[in-house]
Input
Amino acid sequence: MDSQRFRSWATWKDEFSGNLAVFCSDERFVAATLEFLRRGLDMERCDLLVVAGGPAFIPQSEPSLIERLELLIKAHKIERVALIAHDDCGYYKHRYPQLAPEKLRQQQHKDLLAALSALRQKGIKAQAFFAFVDGGDVVFEEVKG
Ligand SMILES: [Zn+2]
Output
């Protein structure tokens, strides 16, 4: 970096795609998730709402995050949302310390379905996915509501 400024190579484009992705901040899944959005879902561009636990805040109706979600939906005219939860999520382990891994996955699926229906009620095209590691690769499987 030269002096106090860093100049990005990314091309500036002053428009919104209407896409939003909501996923967990867990760095182990971030690169694979960004690739999945581009190559798997054709979301070349999208807004990101990245927070520990990912879409969990939607069924839990966490006011501050719901407020930001609503703001993005309105201000950036969001029409399509991808919700992604992942296996071995620290947020879920922290929130439900008594649940065994299989029960945690069930809880995550339940939360994804609840988030899907909340978004669909707003007229948004939403899809949900569960990411897990298989043979060293991250795999994204659709969770259908
Ligand atoms: Zn996580």
User: Anything to note?
Assistant: The mean pLDDT is 96. The chain has one domain: 19-143. The longest strand covers residues 125-134. The helical segments are 27-40, 63-75, 90-95, 101-121.
